[in-house]
Predict the structure of Cytochrome P450.
Amino acid sequence: MSIIPEKYAGPALAVVATAIALVIVRKKWGSRNLPYPPGPKGHPIIGNLFDFPENPICEGFARIAKEYDTDILHLDVMGSHLVVLSNSDVATDILERRSVIYADRPRMPMVNELMGCSWSFSLMPYGNTWRIHRKLFHRFFNVSVADQFDDKIHKAVNVFLHRLSESPERFLKHAHFLTGSLTLSVAYGLNVESESDKFYSASEDAMSAVDIALVSGAFLVGALPILKYVPEWFPGAGFKRFARIAKDNLDHSANLPFQHVKESLQAGAMTASSFAATCLEELPELSKGGVDEEAIRGTASAIKSFFLAATLHPEVVRLAQQELDQVFGGVRLPDLSDKPQLPYISAVVKEVLRWRPPTPFASGSVHRLTEDDTYKGLFIPAGATIMDNTWATFRNESAYPDAHAFKPDRFLKDGQIDPEVKDPERLLFGWGRRICPGRHFVLRLLFLTVARTLATFDISKCLDGDGNPIVPDGKTLLELFRNPSQPLPFKSDIKLRSTHALSLIEGY
Ligand code: HEM
């Protein structure tokens, strides 16, 4: 029997319902009483759609953040909240310390749904399937086993030096080949010997597909997923045609080597020593075992940026070679275990990564907040997309005075790496549960490439017909949506330092 007389039941129910509603609304109000992070005001319905910066967007976001004097910028793109961080302390507080609620990825209709990359675990939503992949990747790439690829890295860098000695003018192609072939070796256990190798060319085509995914038109479909249903012929729907071609290339580049590994394992022609082979054994239904094309692209971009910096800065080449000559006296080439003795080389690598951060807005680095959050009196709603603008972080003048200049010395104090200077190797690879698991591998590869290249080659500006130096303009693939770092082709005069340098290369 009810304790409330029947005639009061209606009003009582209304009071209870109102109370419950108030609790819910108060909770919302409680949070919403706090403002969103600063940002342009926006218009009804479309929000800040027209405030979305032009390419390169990392510079654009940095500019807007400066205008609003904030390290945590908020935009509302047709009801979707976007928060862009441009300070590593804020990124640490939010993406690292509160990682558990920031570890999801947003829905990415262009890359996942139209281009079919949902198998790539860097793009997966936070959850069980992601967790299983992450564990497996961790097993292969974590710091305690980081040296397991050292033989492969040493070998690949030596092939690179050989190729450089044979055709130095093709240095940008060689940088691509170094990262592409090494990745195929690590990921699939493949031994790629030439650029015409079918696995290598498939991966090159896929890289162009990634470029396509990064064109700015593609972003709109991210903000408004319904656009994915627009037919290809519709004005402005060029991204759909791009996505179709990209999907074919990406499928081909992932399926071809994976299939090869599968068949080789079945035929007993391969042991389960590669990442893909292990995936096949442990996750046969879940994975293609590949490594993200964006990862390969980012690594190649860093090597190209190193060549650009060396071409523009003869003083850096001289100081690096002085250090190398002092330590090795031309007796042997540096290897990975020599890092502690080569602080200047380490500083060059850090400065390359800071000066031209590879893939600062890779799709695999965007986070999604799963619960309402507040930070320093600001409200960040659940579902918000969070981007870490490393480009802006690395242009912060108080952390890096004269931030636009290439100055490896900024990382040195009394001839050693200065722990007080914020380390790009720490800040570049993302945060929390999603931090790049390939970072130890990449950093080892970059260090060895820079050290051995400078030990054996001189890098300087080419001369024009009148003997004047040709200064590379340092332009980058600005038409790309997220990556302002990948240098456009440029000329560099790369010569063996001596015949002895060649014999050192050949001795390995
Ligand atoms: C210079 C080269 C590279 C850069 C700058 C880079 C940077 C990043 C960044 C910023 C993220 C996102 C982290 C986050 O969400 O907070 C990431 C994720 C990832 N990276 Fe890298 N990366 C590079 C190369 C590589 C390589 C060579 C591999 C593989 C061997 C790799 C494997 C991955 C994977 C699997 C993820 C996804 C992790 C997850 O979602 O849990 N990366 N990387």
